[in-house]
Every structure is written in C-alpha cells, then in structure tokens.
C-alpha cells in the first residue's frame, strides 16, 4: 500500500512553487481568488504544491501532471492527468501557522497538525472532548502540575480525531463533543494512527490501513475506533 507523508514550511513551499497559473486547475484558482487573507492564500498554494510534489515522488509523473479537486467541504482527490495512474489517489493536507503537512495514499487517509499553544479553559475542553478510557490511558491529561505534558496529551487526542474525520468523514463538533471516536495507545504494528512532534507542533495521521511502514522514529501508535452509542 503506497502511503507517504511529508512535512515542511508554508513559507518554503510557497516560495519554491512555480506561478500558480502554470499548475493549478481553474477550480483551484477560483477558490484561491476568494481568499482575502494573504496568509490563508499562501497556506493553500503551499499545501497544493507540496501535495503534487509528494504525489509525483510516490506514484510517478511530474508534479504539474497531477490535478487536485478543490471542494471546500471535502478532502481533495488527485488524478494523474495523463492517465498513467488509473485511479484517484487520496490526499490530506494540514497546516497550522507556518507548519505544513501532507499525506497521500491509495486508501483514505487523514492528517492534522496543531501548533502547541496554551488553550483557555483547558480543563473544560479535556472533560468535554475525552472519554474516561482516554483519561485513564493518558493520566497527564489530569496532571495540572505539568502543564506542558498536559497540553501535548490534549493535542495528541485532538489531532487524532481531526485526522480521523479527514480520513473517514464526520462532523467536528459531533465527533469531539459526542465522543464518537476513541483513541487509545497501541503498538505501531497494531495501530491505525500515529502522532509525533515537529518542533512546536503535534501531528497525527490516521489511515484505513496499517501505518507501521512510515518510518517515524519518535511516533506513538494509536488505535482509533468508533464508539457504540451504548459506550
């Protein structure tokens, strides 16, 4: 199963990308034109160029030969315009500040990244978005004496559930507040998701296939599952 990911800097990929008129579709250009904030437009362009670079390396062809859908309410799908790759490829793009991440695969995949920064009302957020089993598995969530470890644990679970939504679909509010998905630590060999750190950010990747071949030396494995209504 081809599954590849890459991380980088929004500023760097925006700078190295050719003029967008040479490689973006009309649909993408139209969406880009609606973005009033320069930072948001830069994130969009950098993410789309990173995705094309990763698609070319993983599946073949030139970066400019890959077309990405641009619907705002769904993850992009990639198609090789010359037909050399006969089926659509799943793509997930995430950014937070200058942090950028992308994953591509021949199965549904989701990636999320969050800049580590203090959150107001963290106690309330933890209580509202985590299950008893998650709090038992990550006792640092309740350890007020270690604010840094607590924040990392919270963002691990948050990014995992955002990655799950990107992979499988769903509503953010319902998934987080309704405890639709539960994430518990697992050996990488049994995991369907991983988290890891990049500088001052936490990243998570979820896939509908094993994730043990990514080669992330400091990754933590997780098993994500949909909870029954009776749980």
Structural account:
- By secondary structure, the protein is of the alpha+beta class.
- The protein has two domains: 3-106, Ribosomal Protein L22, Chain A; 114-226, no CATH class.
- Helix content is 34%, strand content 26%.
- The protein contains seven helices and ten strands.
- It has helices at 10-16, 26-33, 38-59, 122-129, 132-137, 147-168, 172-177, and strands at 3-9, 66-68, 77-80, 89-96, 99-105, 109-115, 181-185, 193-198, 201-207, 220-226.
- It has a five-stranded antiparallel β-sheet. Strands 6-9-8-10-7 form a five-stranded antiparallel β-sheet.
- The longest helix is centred in the first third of the chain and has 22 residues, at 38-59.
- The radius of gyration is 18 Å and the shape is globular.
- The mean pLDDT is 91.
Any descriptors?
2 domains; 4'-phosphopantetheinyl transferase superfamily protein; P-Pant_transferase_sf; 7 helices; transferase; Ribosomal Protein L22, Chain A; five-stranded antiparallel sheet; 10 strands; alpha+beta
Topology:
Blueprint (H helix, E strand, L loop, with lengths): L2 E7 H7 L9 H8 L4 H22 L6 E3 L8 E4 L8 E8 L2 E7 L3 E7 L6 H8 L2 H6 L9 H22 L3 H6 L3 E5 L7 E6 L2 E7 L12 E7 L5
Antiparallel strand pairs: 1-5, 2-3, 3-4, 4-5, 6-9, 7-10, 8-9, 8-10
Helix pairs in contact: 1-3
GO biological process, one term: lysine biosynthetic process via aminoadipic acid
Family: Belongs to the P-Pant transferase superfamily. Gsp/Sfp/HetI/AcpT family.
Protein name: 4'-phosphopantetheinyl transferase superfamily protein
